[in-house]
């Protein structure tokens, strides 16, 4: 929702969060554009994003993107603001979006990945029922440094 733009702007300014957004969010206008992009993707049936709430206030985001109808697959991503971490919010949101993707979108396979140096994200993935499938070497490039990622997947039959 457009009213969430100040929260998105604040989240984007937190340490380690700059990598969670495809574009730099450094103004309310940029945060509003990001929210508009999420709305456009939903209308195009390519991605479905949801706010993660903590005490009724948006404290994160969980998305199923890359919705592919031929093979019935999607890609899960999630983040939470610093003050909301460690409360199980991302795990519950990830589980809920997976169930939505299977039941409402008719998807069969959901994937996600996290950097190997992000054990908290790994805990979210495994607690949400995503099984580890393997490591992709040097998958990501940030500031001239390559990072390995660990891929997880969950099937509708799991």
UniProtKB/TrEMBL annotation:
Keywords: Transferase. CDD domains: NAT_SF. Pfam families: Acetyltransf_3. SUPFAM superfamilies: Acyl-CoA N-acyltransferases (Nat). The keyword Transferase applies. GO terms for cellular component: cytoplasm. One of its GO terms (molecular function) is protein-N-terminal-alanine acetyltransferase activity. InterPro entries: Acyl_CoA_acyltransferase, GNAT_dom, Ribosomal_N-acetyltransferase. The keyword Zinc does not apply. Residues 7-148 form the N-acetyltransferase domain. Gene3D superfamilies: 3.40.630.30. PANTHER family: ACETYLTRANSFERASE, RIBOSOMAL-PROTEIN-SERINE ACETYLTRANSFERASE. This is Protein N-acetyltransferase, RimJ/RimL family.
């Amino acid at each position: 929702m457009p009213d969430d733009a100040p929260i998105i702007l604040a989240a984007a300014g937190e340490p380690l969060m700059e990598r969670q957004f495809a574009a730099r969010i450094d103004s309310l206008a940029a945060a509003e554009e990001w929210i508009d992009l999420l709305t456009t993707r939903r209308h195009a049936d390519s991605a479905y994003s949801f706010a993660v709430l903590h005490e009724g206030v948006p404290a994160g985001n969980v998305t199923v993107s890359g919705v592919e109808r031929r093979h019935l697959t999607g890609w899960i991503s999630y983040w939470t603001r610093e003050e909301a971490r460690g409360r199980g919010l991302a795990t519950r949101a990830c589980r809920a979006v997976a169930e939505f993707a299977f039941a409402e979108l008719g998807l069969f396979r959901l994937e996600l990945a996290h950097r190997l140096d992000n054990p908290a994200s790994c805990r979210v993935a495994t607690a949400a029922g995503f099984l580890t499938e393997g490591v992709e070497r040097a998958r990501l490039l940030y500031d001239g440094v390559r990072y390995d990622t660990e891929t997880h997947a969950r099937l509708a039959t799991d």
